[in-house]
Design brief:
Blueprint: H1 8-18, E1 34-38, E2 41-44, E3 49-52, H2 65-77, H3 87-97, E4 106-110, H4 113-128, E5 132-136, H5 145-148, H6 152-155, E6 165-168, H7 185-202, E7 207-213, H8 228-238, E8 242-246, E9 273-276, E10 287-291, H9 293-300, H10 314-329, H11 332-353, E11 357-363, E12 366-374, E13 379-380, H12 382-396, E14 398-399, E15 401-403, E16 409-412, H13 420-443, H14 445-450, E17 457-460, E18 466-469
Parallel strand pairs: 3-14, 5-6, 5-7, 7-8, 8-9
Antiparallel strand pairs: 1-2, 2-3, 4-10, 9-10, 11-12, 12-13, 12-16, 15-16, 17-18
Helix pairs in contact: 2-10, 3-10, 4-9, 7-8, 11-13, 12-13
Cofactor: pyridoxal 5'-phosphate
Family: Belongs to the class-III pyridoxal-phosphate-dependent aminotransferase family.
GO molecular function: lyase activity; pyridoxal phosphate binding; transaminase activity
Length: 475
């Protein structure tokens, strides 16, 4: 039977039978079956079009013709492993190098962000001859065992924290220990890293690296406070460690004003190692580690060859070069600035009209809308966020997801061709849904009779369709 002839139900049944159930689907109660895509749009088996606010991997747009043409042409010409001399890998390394600070001039090509972060960890430990790593709370750096060990988002659900892994507070100025009213949250959060380093030293241990996403994504679409990274780098270098910037989610111009998100921290800050992945192949598996000559030399000095069968193959590099061309030729960084500012303005206006929006965080086309049931207490509105995502999909054919430690943050990381009109549509639909929910809750006769504020109501059941009332205790 041809794939095109499978019904959605048949495809789902086969997936449930053949694919591991830990590999989850979006909208698991009623998945969308996608059969083709173009630009920022997905199309299901019935020809329905969905606006994609999820796929940061398809960076320059789904199935961009310049990328697919480059892939097919190179596949038709040559694809060999990197022990053979070929132009493509060095051309691609040179193009990437032109986007980075001068000291980040040695490249290792791999196939995924997880591979890149695993290699970065090896580089740091080899260079420093130390093992210990500092990571941010709620961080996620990949699915390999070495990366689960340094990802609090994962290890807290599994075997727990290793003695060589140390967790620093997430620099979240909305609900963290230092908030928006602090005079210098960047310094304050960096000082917590300094305290952690001193604690590590008191245990007789030494650090190899501070490892962090330039903009923590799983942690909740967090924008790091100014001055944080440079101060942390100062403390880490003084302790003999290196600073690793994980750009797997945020690199390649997503923030608009800069090519790399770490550059938001100022011209004086430069990591020692940068990892990149998801967007660089526009859906093709290609990733990379960039580092300094000194760190690369230390890795070479161990006498063990580093070889990656598929990393840096000519097809992957041709695709990577095509992605860089499209970013430049279509001014996608400029688009991220223009659309991102427009989207941010719309979301801020939406926040002013809806108490349930506690915070809006947006830079370029990296945005998070934090939903709360109580603005003063900043109580996460997890169930409401899930309901909003469900209704966007069912009523408006907009694909969006949630993130953050409590899954209460509406996350927008669309393809970079996302337009002003797309932003208008998303916010208009959010306005309608939030207004309707508020009216539904506050207009209910039994709600009025009980005189309950909205935060005494929450959704339960599967699929979150039962409205539960928890009345306050009477004094």
């Amino acid at each position: 039977m041809a794939e095109e002839n499978f019904t959605k139900e048949e495809t789902l049944a086969m997936r449930l039978r053949l694919i591991g159930q830990s590999c989850r689907l979006f909208y698991k109660e009623d998945p969308v079956k996608i059969v083709r895509a173009r630009g920022q749009y997905l199309f299901d088996e019935n020809g329905n079009r969905y606006l994609d606010c999820i796929s940061n991997v398809q960076h320059v747009g789904h199935c961009h013709p310049a990328v697919t043409t480059a892939a097919a042409a190179q596949m038709d010409l040559l694809n060999v492993n990197t022990r053979f001399l070929n132009d493509k890998i060095v051309l691609y390394a040179a193009r990437l190098g032109a986007t980075l600070p001068d000291k980040l001039c040695v490249f290792y090509f791999v196939n995924s962000g997880s591979e890149a972060n695993d290699l970065a960890l090896r580089l740091a430990q080899q260079y420093t001859q130390n093992q210990d790593v500092i990571v941010l709370d709620h961080a996620y750096h990949g699915h390999l065992m070495s990366l689960i060990d340094i990802s609090p988002y994962k290890f807290r659900k599994l075997a727990g924290q290793k003695d060589w892994v140390h967790v620093a507070p997430l620099p979240d100025t909305y609900r963290g220990m230092y908030r928006e009213d602090h005079p210098n949250p960047g310094q304050a959060y960096a000082d917590k890293v300094k305290d952690l380093i001193e604690e590590i030293h008191r245990k007789g241990r030494k650090i190899s690296a501070f490892f962090a996403e330039s903009l923590p994504s799983v942690g909740g679409q967090i924008l790091l406070p100014q001055g944080y990274s440079s101060k942390v780098a100062e403390y880490v270098h003084s302790a003999g460690g290196v600073f690793v910037a994980d750009e797997v989610q945020t690199g390649f111009g997503r923030v608009g004003s800069h090519f790399w998100a770490f550059q938001l921290q100022g011209e004086n800050f430069c990591p020692d190692i940068v990892t990149m992945g998801k967007p660089m192949g526009n859906g093709h598996p290609v990733a990379c580690v960039a580092t300094t000559v000194e760190i690369a030399q230390a890795f070479t000095a161990n006498g063990v060859e580093y070889f990656n069968t598929f990393g840096g193959n000519p097809v992957s590099c041709a695709i990577g070069l095509a992605v860089l061309d499209v970013i430049e030729e279509e001014d996608l960084r400029g688009n991220a600035i223009r659309v991102g500012e427009h989207l941010k303005g719309l979301l801020k206006k939406l926040q002013a009209r809806h108490e349930v929006i506690g915070d809006v965080r947006c830079v370029g086309l990296f945005a998070g809308v934090e939903l709360v049931t109580d603005r003063e207490k900043r109580t996460p509105a997890t169930n409401l966020a899930a309901l909003v995502v469900k209704r966007l999909k069912e009523e408006d054919r907009i694909c969006m997801s949630t993130d953050g430690p409590w899954d209460n943050i509406l996350k927008l990381k669309p393809p970079m061709c996302f337009s002003v009109e797309d932003a208008d549509l998303v916010v208009a639909c959010l306005e309608r849904i939030l207004s309707g929910l508020w009216h539904q809750f506050t207009a209910s006769p039994w709600t009025k009779a009980c005189q309950l504020p909205i935060h005494f109501l929450h959704w339960e059941g599967l699929p979150r369709n039962i409205l539960i009332m928890k009345a306050p205790k009477m004094q």
